[in-house]
Write a structure and sequence with these properties.
Helix content is 91%, strand content 0%. The chain is mainly alpha-helical and 158 residues long.
């Protein structure tokens, strides 16, 4: 979200410092940018830590449950399934799940917050321009989706 604040600082600096030539405000703008950057870095590290921790905990519980399940199997189960293959799948599948929890969900939530925050700043800056943009984007996105599928199907033919 802090990435959305930087353009607002630049806009404010151009409007109030450079245009008016009041350079005494420049220190306040630089301090504001520093504070925004610091908050962004701290929040990013906290987000990374929490999602990594939750991913590790989920994978630990999953591995424990799968391991207990494997130990409870009949001997005939191991005649049909190789132990090394089971352990390899246990390791790789749980790592995939950990990556999903710690990276993909985190990035998805971050992107959603940026889109919503971006729309908020757009409407704050110019609601008329934002309304025009919201009218234009859906048809353009629909055409891009349609032509993308069409091009993909044509490329498979060749």
């Amino acid at each position: 979200m802090a990435g959305l604040v930087y353009p607002q600082f630049v806009r404010w600096m151009v409007d109030n410092v450079l245009t008016v030539k009041d350079y005494s405000l420049l220190n306040k703008v630089v301090l504001g940018l520093f504070v925004a950057l610091s908050i962004s870095m701290i929040a990013g590290n906290i987000r990374y830590y929490l999602f990594t921790l939750s991913g590790e905990r989920i994978v630990l519980k999953l591995r424990e449950q799968l391991y207990r399940s494997i130990l409870k199997q009949e001997v005939a189960f191991f005649d049909f399934n190789r132990t090394g293959e089971l352990m390899s799948r246990l390791s790789s599948d749980s790592s995939t799940l950990q990556n999903t929890v710690s990276v993909n969900i985190s990035q998805g939530l971050r992107n959603l917050a940026q889109v919503l925050g971006g729309f908020g700043f757009m409407f704050y800056t110019s609601w008329k321009l934002s309304a025009v943009l919201l009218i234009i984007i859906p048809p353009v996105a629909g055409m891009a989706y349609f032509f993308g599928r069409r091009i993909r199907s044509l490329s498979k033919e060749f």
